[in-house]
Write a structure and sequence with these properties.
This protein has 416 residues and is an alpha/beta fold. 31% of the residues lie in helices and 20% in strands. The strands form 3 sheets. It has a 7-stranded parallel beta sheet, sandwiched between helices. It binds zinc ion (ZN).
Length: 416
């Protein structure tokens, strides 16, 4: 049985910081479909549209009827362990440092058999398992067999932890902890077992309702952080940059203007200065330190979370300049993801629908509560997901965007 994770000992500052080695990461274009689904927390395999055969590994044509009409479909992952083995030797640097490592062969109820990683609580051949896909430290999907039913402390398993970014015992920076979403995030992280939460506040002397209760929690330290001011960002990075394991960029400016509703560029500039340039300043100041500590002990640096918006995918004209700033931030976040991936740091992009806050007062329900958004962020960290679309509105927009982005643009222009 998995033993609960214990608080790691303090690091001896004299010892060297281990460098990260990524697991093997080259995949074919067609196999990337598995990664795209895993990035959203789903386990999908190709299913033949002609004969219904489920495929593994991913391929160009059906193994049963050679049809090229293969479609990615979500799978339950239910199956049975046929064989298990323990690896005691590997020429690969990543696995070498993590031996012994267990591998298994599972027969899925839906047909195919898979070679995969084994959770520590999956033991004897014949045992029922639930197979799922997770991203590994290189950001590529790998398959793992989990115990079915679930076991206590199963998230503390060594193999599973390599694939997630669990905030437990980690040190987290929330860049804007004064908003309703920021406060909810700080509370959720403390509940999830974070060791320290640095709660950023651009104007710490301003009193915000509820902020004092959160600041009084023993894990929480309030810090001054203004993303529009390069010096403020650099100063904080100098102070805590070498200790942060997870950065959650929750800072945003949100105004409700299109183009014609306002003269001048001041509101749009303020949005860009925080939503886009703020992310850039933060990434330049905190990115290198995070990358340098991605293999530093059990609670190494692990993730960067960007709170974007579903409006980043398609412009919502009543919030036109805000949408544009979030689209810019999304593009920059893709660059950040590519750069951080080589160090094994996961960049998680969160695309919520309208949040129930002061800037969406005129939006009809359903709206996402700040607590629901915070829970979605913690879940994404635990599962190691990369792309998160919390709430019904975000899910619905995503479906429509996937179906045809040009149709969605015209629907939004007509009012939704
Ligand atoms: Zn077929």
């Amino acid at each position: 049985m998995t033993m609960p994770l214990m608080r790691p000992k303090r690091k001896n500052p004299v010892l060297r910081t281990p460098q990260m080695n990524l697991p093997p990461w080259s995949r074919s274009r067609v196999a990337m479909g598995l990664t795209v689904a895993a990035a959203e927390g789903r386990f999908a395999l190709q299913v033949c549209a002609e004969c219904g055969a489920v495929q593994y590994p991913p391929r160009e044509a059906c193994h049963a009827c050679v049809s090229a009409r293969l479609q990615w479909r979500q799978q339950s992952g239910e199956g049975r362990l046929i064989a298990a083995t323990t690896l005691h030797h590997s020429n690969d640097l990543f696995f070498r440092e993590r031996l012994p490592w267990r591998l298994g062969l599972v027969h899925l109820d839906s047909g195919p058999s898979l070679m995969l990683h084994l959770h520590g609580d999956v033991q004897a051949a014949g045992q029922r398992v639930r197979v799922t896909a997770r991203l590994d430290r290189a950001g590529r999907a790998v398959v793992i067999a989990l115990p079915d039913p679930e076991t206590p402390y199963m998230n503390d398993d060594k193999v599973l932890r390599e694939m997630g970014c669990d905030p437990r015992f980690r040190k987290v920076l929330v860049t804007d902890a004064k908003s309703a979403t920021g406060l909810a995030l700080v509370r959720a992280l403390v509940k999830a077992g974070a060791d320290i939460v640095w709660a950023g506040h651009a104007e710490p002397w301003k009193k915000m309702p509820g902020a004092d209760d959160v600041a009084a929690l023993p894990q929480v330290t309030r810090v001054a952080l203004d993303l529009t001011d390069g010096r403020s960002v650099d100063e904080l990075a100098g102070e805590i940059g070498g200790k942060v394991d997870i950065v959650i960029n929750s800072a945003e400016v949100h105004r409700t203007y299109g183009i014609a509703a306002r003269r001048g560029t001041d509101a749009a500039r303020a949005e860009m200065d925080v939503n886009y340039f703020g992310l850039l300043r933060l990434a330049q100041a905190f990115g290198p330190a995070l990358k340098g500590r991605s293999a530093d002990g059990i609670t190494h640096a692990v993730a960067w979370v960007n709170l974007l918006s579903i409006y980043a995918l398609a412009n919502f004209p009543p919030h036109g300049t805000f949408s544009a700033s979030k689209a810019a931030a999304h593009s920059l976040a893709q660059c950040l993801r590519a750069e951080m991936r080589m160090a094994g740091i996961r960049v998680i992009n969160v695309f919520p629908g309208p949040v129930d806050d002061e800037w969406n007062q005129n939006q009809p329900p359903p709206k996402l509560s700040p607590d629901a958004l915070a829970s979605a962020v913690v879940k994404a960290l635990r599962d190691g997901a990369e792309d998160v679309y919390p709430g019904d509105v975000a899910q619905e927009w995503l479906e429509r965007w996937r179906d045809d982005p040009r149709v969605l643009e015209r629907e939004l222009a007509a009012g939704g």
